[in-house]
Amino acid sequence: MAPETGYAMLCQQIVEGIPDALIFADENGIIRLWNGGAEALFGFTATEAVGQRLDLIIPERLRERHWDGYRRVMATGVTRYGRALLAVPAIRKDGARISIEFSILLLRNSQGEALGSAAMLRDVTARRQREKELKQRLSALDDK
Question: How far apart are CA 123 and CA 121, in angstroms?
Fold first, then answer.
């Protein structure tokens, strides 16, 4: 087996096997890559998700803001979130609202133009709920 073939196979195993969700959306926000972690997190199979817009997982009230930013980043090739860990609400196939954290990578062609973005996402709903409950308890103690 040629080394390139071996590396390609390893890359495919990493993408498919990593437990975090890994998504790639093209410059128009169309999902082109949806791994097993994304299936587990959001409930949509790759067959259901690939070819769909990112609206699939973005709560309706946040879509306009998301698309304004997405279009700006694709047009300029500049994002202020390069190394940041972002926290936002998302929606699952069953309609449940979840809290996710993710990091993004802007992918570019050889001329430096934006081709789309890749994101690694993780469900932090349980942790966010624990933090909220802790804040409420602390607030109740402060009120005493």
Answer: 7
Q: How does pLDDT run across 101-124, given as a tens digit for each residue?
A: 999 999 999 998 999 999 999 999
Q: In what order do the strands lie in the sheet with 97-108?
A: 31-34, 21-26, 114-123, 97-108, 86-91
**CATH value at residue 111:** 3.30.450.20
What share of the chain has pLDDT > 70, as a percent?
97
Domain that holds residue 86: 3-143
5 pLDDT more than 80: no
DSSP the chain: --HHHHHHHHHHHHHHH-SSEEEEEETTSBEEEE-HHHHHHHS--HHHHTTSBGGGTS-GGGHHHHHHHHHHHHHH---TTSSPPEEEEEE-TTS-EEEEEEEEEEEE-TTS-EEEEEEEEEE-HHHHHHHHHHHHHHHHHHH-
Number of domains in the chain: 1
pTM: 0.85
| Percentage, residues of the chain above pLDDT 90 | 67
